[in-house]
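Protocol step 4 of 6.
Sequence for Signal recognition particle protein (Succiniclasticum ruminis DSM 9236) entered exactly as in the expression construct, tag removed. Do not edit the line below.
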Amino acid sequence: MAFESLSERLQNAIKMFRGTKEITEEDLKEPLRQVRMALLEADVNFKVAKNFVAKIKERALGAEIQQNLSPSQQIIKIVDEELTALLGGTQAKLTVADKPPTIIMLVGLQGTGKTTTVGKLAYNLKKKKKSPLLVAADVYRPAAITQLQVLGEQVGVPVFSLGNEISPVEIARQSLDKAAHLACDTIIIDTAGRLHIDEKLMEELQDIKATVNPHEILLTVDAMTGQDAVTVADTFNKDLGLTGLVVTKLDGDARGGAVLSVREVTGCPVKFVGMGEKLDALEPFYPDRMASRILG
Ligand code: GDP
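Step 5 output, structure tokens:
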């Protein structure tokens, strides 16, 4: 399970506060060192970990004594609140267009779970009585179109493909007519992934963006890749302007650093997390619940 080690270490660090009667800087030193170590070991970005601990220290020392809470309970509350804030504060919902269709572009490096996420999103939306159209705009990987068609069939939603000889920009453009024709209220575009970020990929994605003007550009990042995921997200965001992130493979034994740092580093909210390979394994991301899960 993701976060297992981080959870355990954070909980141990927090236990060190339990005996504290009055909070002094000296009392905080060791527990906060432990918190910082736990974050770094979970592959949280160095700066993020440093800022996080600094905030807790500042708040703990400046905290007004609340009658109903012991000093240690107060610190636990601060850690919980700061962890929630780090994860994005409140839930960032999927944008829905005032006037349909809502256009969602899925982007991501190969293997991060982009196409699977397109299927999961379609499943999710269909359950909410929406009618999505999936658009096969990854024309470079031959299996990608078939993979999307299989997913479309499983979910029971139409898939728009023009094969792999037409440019992805043109496919995206024509998908608007198709959606109108089929009365689909949501368009989900599966774009090409590459092993690494390259200029050509980014230009193509920028062209698709300029052509269809999407309401959402979601990037899938693989939780198992830790800080690399955060670097990739930062680059995509700078080049493309993301509206949200989907952190995939959180059902595995990811150390959790990606989820913890990605919002802080990119300023982009995590909107969903992938919790498995199946269609129903996409969950909306609730920062407060995730914080509680981590702190146990
Ligand atoms: P793409 O190249 O980014 O489109 O990646 P795919 O959608 O083909 O996914 C790559 C692999 O990751 C597939 O085997 C998926 O089943 C798997 N995968 C995707 N999302 C998740 C997830 O949330 N959890 C797990 N365990 N596997 C996932």
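Step 6, annotate. The beta strands are 102-108, 132-137, 159-160, 186-191, 216-222, 244-248, 270-274, 282-284.
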